[in-house]
Design goal:
There is one protein chain. The protein is α/β, with parallel strands linked by helices. The chain contains 22 helices and 21 strands. The strands form four sheets. It has an eight-stranded mixed barrel with strand order 13-14-16-17-18-19-20-21, surrounded by four helices. A six-stranded mixed β-sheet has the order 5-7-8-6-11-12. The chain has a four-stranded parallel β-sheet with strand order 1-2-3-4, with helices on both faces. Strand 11, helix 10 and strand 12 form a beta-alpha-beta unit. Helix 1 runs parallel beside helix 5. It is globular and about 85 Å long.
């Protein structure tokens, strides 16, 4: 073992905290740790006399009492070091409460270092008075963890005194945590907490309450203080967080956004935090450091919360229907297909579009159910189209959550077959942002769908940051240009060059190009000149019901390159 590690370990073992360890394993190498000065206590019974550090061997299987061990360590303010054979067990180990993970193969020096780091974790817990305030942000910790006051003091403060609450969200923490590791991330959160507490207590005359709110969010209740002073405190906290921190041998830079809400006597903690989250989200969306919750913000939050409650009922009561937006040939004006778009006939709010619907579904964990509902209903309606529509293609959307579901392709194709709609007239559209998380899984899914007879399109191309990677890696038939990019073609010369480049790239790869959101003849003319094949948008029609779509298909005067160019 290196001299530096040996000296630090020796110093650590002399602290009064006590770091006896037990090993849930029969590996003989652990006995060598005793010779290095780590006191060893073999686990027995219900782990009586719980040591401060547990070494748990996960190379063979999860110990059946792992949950009980983790709970006992939580109570004893101890630490848990896991030994694993492969990275697939890392998530389970961390979720169970592991402070450190050592991979196979390992040696005694590695184990000694892991114990050393676990001991530092225990020291931090001891200094914080037993508060588990350094947990990884990957583990949800919903309790209010106050720096100095006992549990429940936040609720007591809210109930007794009208005041304010600040919710502080960190920026760039995830990237730093990924680059430097969990331990560095934990240390960084402790340092952030100390800076916030120092500023808050100084500017409030020692009356502020400072807490972790799970993940990387922090709470400050500043006590009696006017709005201008609250804003000054919030700005000062942001400045302090933006000062560089040390992460190992490196300086790292964080940022922060803060949402501020007024509280009223008798407020529940959960309600205040919900309103504070609205203010924090607004600050992030507006790219400002501090946002005070306005009446409009709160009204929007209440509206959104109501929609989330209504969505489950809407799915059960079949309030969500399908309209179809035509996709038109640029050259001859013939409608060749349609995109299925969801519409929610809300009893109070009237018709709500797909963007609102899916945004609500994502917040309320109904995204998968909504996506499946829309796909099935679209295919069922299209299977029953009148004869005049039976040559049209149908495009349905697939979400990132769909891609991640095991066996989605088989389930999806079975549903399509059940509705009776032919696979060879179906196009699956995947939004570009939905592919970023797992490009390999998306490619495999799309290959399966194409092999089954479907066609595949990238939707909203131009809104993400990995577009070229998608065109190179994915088996595609169509590229759909995002409406904002398509409409830019009437802008500057630079805008037209960008759109031209996208179309040229797609055509060179053998992909047909569909432009979304086309609203004017000028846009259509310029897109046609650049080689765009199809368009959809208000220039042709708004999303239509089946009857209106059938009437439109029988017309022969839809805007196209030939009709625009013809003399008037």
């Amino acid at each position: 073992m290196k001299q530096g590690n040996a000296q630090r370990a020796s110093e650590l073992r002399e602290t009064p905290v006590g770091f006896a360890f037990a090993a849930v394993s029969d590996d003989p190498r652990f006995e060598a740790l005793v010779k290095l000065g780590w006191k060893f206590e073999a686990p027995s019974g219900a782990l009586a006399g719980m040591p401060k550090i547990m070494l748990i061997d996960l190379r063979k299987k999860m110990p059946p009492k792992l949950g009980a061990i983790a709970k006992a360590l939580e109570t004893a303010r101890g630490a848990f070091v896991a030994i694993i054979s492969d990275s697939s067990k890392s998530a389970a180990a961390f979720e169970a409460g592991a402070t450190q993970i050592v991979g196979e193969p390992f040696d005694i020096e590695m184990m000694d270092s892991a114990l050393l780091l676990a001991g530092r974790q225990i020291e931090r817990l001891a200094r914080a008075g037993g508060r588990r305030g350094v947990e990884s942000p990957s583990r949800s910790n919903k309790a209010m963890l106050d720096l100095e006051k006992p549990s429940g003091s936040i609720q007591s403060e809210l109930s007794a005194n009208p005041t304010a609450l600040m919710l502080i969200g960190l920026k760039r923490f995830d990237a730093i945590n990924a680059a430097f590791g969990r331990q560095t991330g934990d240390d960084l959160l402790v340092a952030v907490e100390r800076r916030i507490a120092s500023v808050a207590k100084e500017m409030s005359g020692g009356k502020a309450i400072v807490s972790r709110s799970g993940g990387t969010d922090f709470i400050v209740i500043p006590g009696p203080m006017g709005l201008s002073d609250r804003l000054a405190l919030a700005e000062r906290i942001v400045v302090q967080i933006e000062r560089p921190f040390m992460a190992g041998d490196h300086f790292v830079a964080l940022g922060a956004s803060i949402g501020i809400v007024d509280t009223r006597a008798g407020d529940l903690e959960s309600d205040v935090l919900r309103r504070a989250q609205v203010a924090l989200t607004a600050a992030r969306d507006d790219d400002v450091a501090v946002r005070v919750l306005s009446a409009q913000d709160e009204g929007t939050a209440l509206f959104d919360a109501g929609l989330e409650t209504d969505l489950r009922r809407a799915l059960d009561n079949n309030e969500i229907d399908i309209l179809f937006q035509p996709q038109v040939s640029v050259t001859n004006g013939q409608i060749v297909g349609v995109e299925a778009l969801a519409r929610w006939q809300h009893p109070q709010h009237g018709e709500l579009g797909a963007e609102t619907l899916f945004s609500v579904a994502e917040r309320s964990d109904y995204l998968t159910a909504l996506s499946a509902h829309v796909q099935r209903r679209a295919a069922m309606k299209a299977a029953a189209w009148p004869e005049v529509l039976q040559s049209l293609r149908l495009s349905v959307n697939v979400t990132a959550e769909d891609i991640a579901r095991p066996g989605f392709a088989d389930t999806f194709l079975a549903m399509i077959d059940e509705t009776g709609f032919p696979r060879d007239r179906l196009t699956v559209e995947i939004t570009e942002n939905g592919l970023i998380d797992d490009l390999a899984a998306a490619a495999a899914l799309l290959a399966t769908l194409r092999a089954s007879g479907c066609r595949v399109a990238i939707d909203d191309f131009g809104t993400g940051y990995s577009s070229l990677a998608y065109l190179k890696a994915l088996p595609l038939d169509y590229l759909k240009i995002d409406k904002h990019l398509a409409q830019d073609i009437t802008g500057t010369a630079r805008d037209r060059i960008v759109v031209r480049g996208v179309i040229d790239m797609a055509r060179s790869l053998g992909l047909a190009v569909i432009a979304e959101g086309v609203e004017t003849e000028e846009q259509l003319t310029l897109l046609a000149r650049e080689g765009c094949n199809y368009y959809q948008g208000f220039l042709c029609a708004v999303p239509l019901g089946v009857g209106a779509l059938a009437d439109l298909v029988t017309q022969r005067s839809l805007p196209s390159l030939s009709t625009i160019a013809a003399p008037r």
